[in-house]
Write a structure and sequence with these properties.
- The structure holds 2 protein chains of 2 kinds.
- Chain A is mainly alpha-helical.
- Chain A is 74% helix and 1% strand.
- Chain A has 2 domains: 2-69, no CATH class; 92-301, MetI-like fold.
- The longest helix of chain A is centred in the N-terminal third of the chain and has 39 residues, at 11-49.
- Chain A is flat and about 75 Å long.
- Chain B has a single domain (62-301), classed as MetI-like fold (Orthogonal Bundle).
- Helix content of chain B is 75%, strand content 0%.
- Chain B is built from 13 helices and no strands.
- The model of chain B has no long low-confidence stretch (mean pLDDT 85).
- The chains are: A mainly alpha, B mainly alpha.
- Chains A and B meet through helix 2, helix 5, helix 7, helix 8 and helix 11 of A and helix 1, helix 4, helix 5, helix 6 and helix 7 of B.
């Protein structure tokens, strides 16, 4: 009430208030525009995935499908041989691709996080000659373009009969994710006080036991961040999957690029595959956003 | 005496602990990155053409490098890569900074915005390519449809039809995917700046621009540099997007160096030359990293 009377008696303040309200409106218009730009393209892919083929080729586009359909989702989740749905080419590989991606990403994450955390702990807590050089090496190796080492890897995979194999892909992904995992966990361990393990070791714990029983339980946020990050990277990886997988081990990213019919590229199906393939990383990113941003900030800002 | 043996035993246990903890990760990285890095350099010095399996892999010195450096398609690709990196990095960083500054305040729906910003970052790169290829489709694409309905264009445009058009669209698709995450990094850095710094500056009579230039920029410079370095390297490595969106075309207009190396190696099947291109690319990445680090340290030291 008091504010109101003042603003009546003082036109200057009311104008300032008006300007404040106006800039507020402008701000929210900006926010809404931003959200539309970020979400719009993905939303359109989803809308396309539930539009029947006829509506996909409508001009102007049907922004909201008149007859939304889930037949593509149904087709992608139908096992080969099951009757009833007309299955376009490439679809029978989709389920296999999904399960391959799930297996490879999960195991990569597991191996990466376990071995990477062990190494990061030692690097954060002990004095080893050449440690700084090693850490610089780790940081730089994150920057190596994969294409540089793809040829030796190719020859190696052939020699050890690991082309088109799950274990080969896991080995490669683990090797590429480890530097990032080590880097992030290393900077995380540096934030934990030394006294923690020292106290445990005075009480008679071995170093390993102190690490396992004292440090690991305190490393939740860091571990969540690197796990999410490893899983996401493995799930989204395409270049190595393109080169090293074959009929048996194609991952989801390779599978979705292969959808085509006798009429050319089937965009409806690709959109559907794209939506399904994005669901696991999206769930992960949204659920764990706090940890991911914090972990990556720690990992990159301190770099 | 007894205590001495205990100490040395302790030290031995420590050493064993260190080795066992480092061994698994070290071994994997040695096999998957260090050894291939060395071998790749050696291959780049050999004549190794998979289309001619009878030819011996003789040592040819730097002939592969000479061949690549005199190949006009390499320079074409280098130019395209330069333009792509320049466009993508400058747009990414400047937009991310503007949006981060805008979001650096309390408002309703802030958490929602931050969560949605992770969407483009989280989806697979190939899905990004497929999605934009569909949006940019000349006959049925959403972009043509929307612009036509709004009256901005009077006939449908073939967005990916010219080399320049395709490159610009590639850059925009890349910015869509990468900008929001850079924005989150910068936002996190902005939020570490204490508010009273700005209050003090205002008391001293500084306007918004001066506060921005003299407080904000210096304080987020480290993050800015990290973002710049990471973005440059990632843009140099771009592959997934180009593969799905344009396949390097039209007429090589979007054949960035990562895609060029892939073509040289797995389509032309010339391992020696492919390795040479790859090593040249690493050299560029290395130079970028060193340049940025130099600049960063100079800034921090002043």
């Amino acid at each position: 009430m008091a504010a109101l009377t003042i603003s009546h008696s003082n036109p200057k303040i009311s104008r300032r208030k008006l300007r404040g309200a106006f800039s507020n409106i402008l701000f929210y218009v900006g926010i809404v525009a931003l959200i539309c730009l970020v979400v719009g393209p993905f939303l359109w892919m989803f809308i396309s995935s539930i539009s029947p083929q006829i509506e996909l080729s409508a001009t102007p586009p049907h922004w909201f499908p008149e007859n939304p359909t889930l037949y593509r989702y149904q087709a992608l989740f139908t096992r080969p041989g099951e009757a009833g749905v007309n299955i376009p080419a490439g679809v029978e590989k989709f389920l296999k691709g999904l399960s391959n991606s799930l297996i490879v990403s999960t195991l990569t994450t597991l191996i990466c996080v376990v071995t990477g955390t062990m190494a990061a702990y030692v690097l954060a807590r002990t004095e080893i000659p050449g440690k700084t050089k090693f850490m610089t090496g780790i940081l730089s190796s994150q920057m190596i373009p994969i294409v540089v080492i793809i040829i030796p890897l190719y020859l190696m995979m052939q020699k050890f009969d690991m082309m088109d194999s799950i274990r080969g892909l896991i080995l490669l992904y683990t090797g590429f994710m480890l530097p990032t995992v080590i880097w992030i966990m290393h900077s995380y361990f540096l934030t934990l006080p030394h006294e923690l393990e020292e106290a445990a070791m005075v009480d008679g714990c071995t170093r390993f036991k102190a690490f396992l029983k004292v440090i690991i339980p305190l490393s939740g946020p860091g571990l969540v961040a690197v796990s999410a990050f490893s899983f996401l990277s493995a799930w989204n990886e395409f270049f190595m999957a393109l080169i090293f997988t074959g009929a048996n081990t194609k991952t989801i990213t390779v599978t979705v690029t292969e959808f085509s019919s006798q009429f050319g590229v089937d965009y409806g199906l690709m959109a559907t595959g794209g939506v399904i393939g994005s669901i696991p990383p999206l769930i992960l990113a949204f659920l764990l956003q706090k940890y991911i941003v914090a972990g990556l900030t720690a990992g990159s800002v301190k770099g | 005496m007894a205590s001495l043996t205990r100490i040395s035993r302790r030290r031995k246990d420590d050493l064993l602990f260190i080795i066992l903890m480092l061994l698994p990760a070290g071994l994997i990285m040695a096999v998957v990155t260090i050894y291939p890095l060395v071998r790749s350099f050696i291959i780049s010095l050999l004549q190794w053409d998979l289309t001619k399996p009878n030819l011996a892999h003789v040592f040819v010195g730097f002939d592969n490098y000479k061949y690549v450096l005199t190949d006009p398609t390499f320079w074409q690709s280098a130019k395209v890569t330069g333009l792509f990196v320049l466009g993508s990095v400058s747009l990414n960083i400047s937009l991310a900074l503007v949006v981060a500054l805008m979001l650096n305040r309390e408002f309703i729906g802030r958490n929602l915005v931050r969560m949605l910003a992770l969407l483009p970052w989280a989806i697979p790169g190939v899905v990004n390519g497929i999605m934009w290829k569909w949006i940019l489709n000349p006959s049925y694409g959403a972009l043509n449809g929307a612009l036509f309905q709004l009256g901005i264009i009077d006939k449908y445009v073939i967005w990916l039809g010219t080399p320049t058009g395709a490159l610009i669209m590639g850059i925009l698709a890349d910015v869509w995917k990468e900008m929001p995450f850079i924005m989150l990094l910068l936002l996190a850095a902005l939020q570490t700046i204490p508010k009273d710094l700005y209050e003090a500056a205002t008391v001293d009579g500084a306007n918004a621009f001066r506060s921005f230039w003299n407080i904000t920029i210096p304080l987020i410079k480290p993050t800015l540099f990290v973002a710049l370095t990471l973005r440059t390297i990632w843009a140099l490595k771009s592959f997934d997007l180009i593969y799905t969106l344009t396949s390097g075309g039209p007429s090589g207009g979007t054949t960035v160096i990562g895609y060029y190396t892939y073509l040289k190696t797995f389509v032309s099947l010339n391992l020696g030359r492919g390795s040479a291109v790859a090593y040249l690319m690493t050299l560029v990445v290395g130079i970028v990293v060193i340049l940025y680090q130099r600049a960063l340290y100079k800034e921090v030291r002043y």
